[in-house]
């Protein structure tokens, strides 16, 4: 009973801190997914452009950041970013070390990793669009911007949702590695609670259960988004110009 009381939400319990840490995990993962979506869209466009230089750069990006261990990328972004910020500070007359905030470093690192996977998700979704629809849109006089807005983007989004759900789950688990930067996300808080109370089994199980809750809820959200997108797609695919 004493062990379970440690998970309470009063002033003597760790439960509230674990919940706050879970919310921090969601925040850093959502930020990373948004960063990755921007990078992934740019890289996917580069790989689909047909330009040899852009295709090569896109391939290098996806190969490097899918092949290098995630923890190494987090270290490079956190310590390399801190060194860069410190150098900029010295150039502006500030003396001393300037560390890159853990949240920014973690979200950026996981976002860069996420972007390498999202690029392939977006590229695959674009290639799955029927060429006949694009040709029909051109035949009725749709300009490039309208084709992008009315046909390409809605279908890419619909086709990419399952893949994006997988990338979200991957990023959610990668966020545990950000604990090395000192950010009080779920893994870090579980470690601190376990070390402070010597209740390692209790707090690591509690942290694992919270991760399972987050992933289960995420599955429901992405499955719901996929169903909704599939229902609305027939009405929005071609539309009226």
From TrEMBL:
Topology versus the membrane: Multi-pass membrane protein
Residue span, ABC transmembrane type-1 domain: 22-222
A molecular function GO annotation: transmembrane transporter activity
Source organism, top-level taxon: Bacteria
Gene Ontology CC terms, in alphabetical order: ATP-binding cassette (ABC) transporter complex
Membrane-spanning segments: 12-45, 52-78, 98-117, 200-222
Database matches in InterPro entries: AA_ABC_transptr_permease_3TM, ABC_transp_permease_HisMQ, MetI-like, MetI-like_sf
Cross-referenced SUPFAM superfamilies: MetI-like
Keyword Transport: yes
Keyword line: Cell inner membrane, Cell membrane, Membrane, Transmembrane, Transmembrane helix, Transport
Annotated signal sequence range: none
Pfam family, one: BPD_transp_1
Subcellular location: Cell inner membrane; Cell membrane
Family: Belongs to the binding-protein-dependent transport system permease family. HisMQ subfamily.
Name this protein carries in UniProt: ABC transporter permease subunit
